[in-house]
Amino acid sequence: MPAEVKIAHSATPPLTERQEARRRRILHASAQLASRGGFDAVQMREVAESSQVALGTLYRYFPSKIHLLVATMQDQLQHMHTTLRKRPPSGESPAERVAETLMRAFRALQREPHLADAMVRALTFADRSVSPEVDQVSRQTTAIILDAMGIDDPTPDQLSAVRVIGHTWHSALITWLSGRASIAQVKIDIETVCRLIDITAPQK
Length: 204
Description:
CATH topology of the domain at 65-200: Tetracycline Repressor, domain 2
Shape: globular
Number of strands: 0
Helix content: over 70%
Radius of gyration: 17 Å
CATH superfamily of the domain at 65-200: Tetracycline Repressor, domain 2
Order of helices and strands: HHHHHHHHHHH
CATH class of the domain at 65-200: Mainly Alpha
Number of helices: 11
Distance between the termini: 21 Å
Mean pLDDT: 91
């Protein structure tokens, strides 16, 4: 795995077991509220009550609702990555495997449209202060794609292709959520952009 994928955490000290458990409760509460009512349903006070943490403590973990929902997206992608590893894609070529993987991830989000909409809206609204959380989402998406490709040490051209594929996947999610694209259109776009993997493959 390339260095830029490995360093998925900032330089902040690692959380203690108790702090990590508290963070997991917060993310779970965020996802539950978003699943039921979307972006507007995620209110920091309700998240604090649902996760049984003080409101001030919640703000120390996540300075705003946007920080929280972007972190929730990274957490959801991490869960997807674990699931995908248990049942790897069956395509013969790297491009086919990546397309299959991203469509499976897309369909997982499709089953939770309110949650998907809340997370994508937060990602869209994120300003520079949310950069660390946005970077986590990008790294997690990159890791999922590289795993599907079966490549441990991608070339710069391949990494560029992976970034474009990740951007297209997120964009396709936005257009589907806004009702401007069908699932069939999303599939075509994903399969089309995944051809970049073949184009950027090192020549033998």
